[in-house]
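task queued by scheduler; priority normal; single chain, no ligands, no partner chains; default sampling; output format set to structure tokens
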Amino acid sequence: MPDVLYAAVGLVVGGGLGFFFERLKRGSAYQDRDQIIEQAKRDAENLRKDEELKNREELLKRREELEESLNETKDKLHQRERELDKRQGGLDDRDEEFQKREKMVESQQAKLSARAKSMDVKEKELDRVLEREQDQLYKISEMKPEQAKELLLQRLDRTLKDETGGLILKYEAELKDRQEELAREILGMAIQRISSAQTSEMTVSTVDIPNDEMKGRIIGREGRNIRAFEKFAGVDVIVDDTPGVVVVSAFDKVRREVARLSLIKLIQDGRIHPTRIEEVVAETNKEMDAHIKKMGQEACLEANVAGLHEKLVYLMGRMHFRTSYSQNVLRHSIEVSHVTMLLAEQMGLDPAIARRAGFLHDIGKAADHEMEGGHPAVGAELLKRYGEGVEVVHAAAGHHDDIRPEFIYTVLVAAADAASASRPGARRENLDRYVKRLEELEALACGFPGVDQAFAVQAGREIRIIVNSREVNDRGAAKLTKEIAKAIEENLTYPGEVKVVVLRETKAVEYAR
């Protein structure tokens, strides 16, 4: 019995303790839950406030950007408004000026109309007076009108004969004084029609290489490749620190061009050794001979000279690679050929002989290193050897006054040679200086009021100026011509003389639709 009682009491006490501990556990859980919920609410509130603060900052930043853009747009609009106001003011001034001019034109038209009416009245009155005087003269002379006319014509004929004889003697004397001036004009007209480009004399050519490693291959082991190339091509090859470039140097332009082309072929081929170098240089020499012959043929066609010996054609082609005082000798020969022909036509001579003599006058320069003597003597010997006419041979021998001229063509060739060599832009003036002089000439002309455009032509011997017809009238154009010519004399340095031409025209364009 006591055991049962103890067991029952134990169960009651155990159950009570269990219930107590369960209530205690549940109260703690509820308390933790409430704390978590409260903390979550506080965190959510903080996040909401942070997000609102971030959104406000972004709105403020966006507002500042918009205000800055708006201010910039307002500044542009204000500036544009000021420009438009300025343009409007200018347009108003121009409109006022046009109205003044229109009133002046209307006033001038009214004056001209009144003057025209007055002139008509005076002209009618003059006709009546002359008619009365003529009737009185007929009555006084007692002659018929036909008789009076015949007598007047006879007296006029005698007077004109005497005056004509005096004028002829006077003009003959003036013509003798102007012979030299006329000769210069004829030569000038001929040379002005020729203005070919010239090349500058150079002694080096450059060859581009793909990379600096190629320089080592060009030089070769212990320099054997570059020595072989210089030996076969007859040039100097300069390989320095300049990136991407190899320099070929030689005084003979033909050898230099052959070397340049050969080096380009070797670089493209990639096989660079003495045997290959010899083959490529020999092949390029053959190609250069064909190219020289072709250039000689093209020059003969351009100069309209036919029937030349093949050797002469080849020598003329070689002159493309020779310069004299920076002037290309082949272009110079073609130019002299044209000028000599023009001079011969002016003087009534055979233009074909003149053209041939001018074209071949410097051919000795292509072979003066192979034969003894100056290029006139060498050229005359070559032309004589290959069957050219005596006039052509004599022109080559005497165009530098080495011998006494026996043919008029020699004199013409000498004159054309001097004109081609001394004209502006041909010699002794490098390209940069020549172009700068032409630019200064055009800039000076464009600086005058009323000038729209200016063009330097005839190698700087003439400046053509186009003026605004509304701003410059005919009298103003004549005055402007003198002012520009005076300004050129005072401010610029130039050979010979400069012709100033002012062009003025009015164009009216309308379309029928």
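post-processing summary
- The chain has 15 helices and eight strands.
- Confidence is low (pLDDT under 50) at residues 196-201.
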